Amino acid sequence: MVETKVLKIKDLYNDSLEYPCEVLKSGNLVAFPTETVYGLGALATNPEAVRKIFEVKGRPQDNPLIVHLSSIDQIKDFAFMEERYMKVINKLTPGPITFVLKKKDNIPYEVTAGLDTVGIRIPAHPIAQRLARCAGPIAAPSANLSGRPSPTDAKSVIEDLNGLVDCIIDAGESAFGIESTIVDLTKDKPLILRPGPITIEELNDIFAEFGGVDYYEPKKEERPIAPGMKYRHYAPEKPIRLVNREELANLVNTNVLILCTLETQKDILQGAENIYIIGEYSRPYTIAQNLYRSLRYIDKSPYLEAVIEKFPEEGLFFSIMNRLKKAVSKK
Ligand code: TXA
Ligand code: MG
Question: Cys bridge to 33: 55, 126, 139, 171, which one at CB 3.0-4.6 A?
């Protein structure tokens, strides 16, 4: 066990990051906020430090980490980038998107789990950017124990990692609430490996001159291209199921917790007490923001099991359903 220092940030641009920066430079771990979810960071160029991430999270060894940089100009220092994609990458960064590129030699195989490609992300969050600027490239998965929902606030990070890391930076809630969209740019055509805040519809537009994007749906039997996608994820301990909106009415005032939208509660579940609102159907980003907090709430609630409202798989709902399907899949 180590003593975990929680560093509360009031001013995103001016509060000192000297302590977490020193922790990273000395080869230790810092949990930090990004605009998607909180990350558990180590200096990407230090293989020893990177190994600690896998130990602390209990992360499978074949699951590579994303490298966070402070600016677009740094990408060429760590990865090869095709000239034809420069304009699009410029348009999408900084932001909630990760590009898989061929790696350069200064990215150790500890980061990429032996792959010759590396996931690169330039987060828009000022703290993540400032930290990468002062410490260097930061390898970071989400700051949860392996298999648990990703943390979208410092409280959730503390639940999972208190006593296991030197520093947790608390800068409030993550804006998007689900992990970055991952696009593989090493193929002939851009390939979405993980849907996220930037939707497939948006990427089809942005990559139109390249014929749009393909979506990679991992099949159970093969080794997935994004190794992380094969694992059960985001899952509470208690049993959970996805249920069609209309069928939720059958569960009113039973011992099953119903996670649903505000609209569903108003339209068909009025008077039910066993309800937890996960956001507004008309504003899907509110559902993404609350998603992992809601999944974490299931185990804290007095109910023995939970059901979650099913959504149509388009736009941001496609990314939300991607996470929910993983959360309900069998152990
Ligand atoms: O929003 C995010 O991406 C957050 C914040 C902290 O940046 N990070 C995050 O990391 O979600 P993690 O480790 O929970 O998910 C990383 C995903 C995994 O599914 C992994 O397999 C995939 O990225 N990945 C990383 N490097 C890859 C590579 N070279 N090729 C294919 N997939 C890769
Ligand atoms: Mg994760």
Answer: 171
Residue nearest to atom 15 of ligand 1 (CA): 141
* For the chain, domain boundaries: 5-215, 240-328
Could you tell me which CATH number the domain at 240-328 has? 3.40.50.11030
Q: Is 207:190 a contact under the CB 8 Å cutoff? A: yes
The CB density around residue 45, as the number of other CB atoms within 10 Å, is: 17
CA 196–ligand 1 middle distance (angstroms): 11
Nearest CA to ligand 1 atom 18: 228
Ligand 1 pocket mutation pick from 30, 62, 66, 103 by most atoms within 8 angstroms of CB = 66
Q: For 101-137, what is each residue's pLDDT tens digit?
A: 999 999 999 999 999 999 999 999 999 999 999 999 9
122 φ, ψ (degrees, to nearest 5): -110, 100
Strand ranges (DSSP E) for 9-47?
30-32, 39-43
Instruction: Note the pLDDT tens digit of each residue in 175-213.
Output: 999 999 999 999 999 999 999 999 999 999 999 999 999
Distance 255 CA to ligand 1 centre (A): 36
Helix (H) or strand (E) holding 293: helix 284-300
CATH architecture of the domain covering 5-215: Alpha-Beta Complex (3.90)
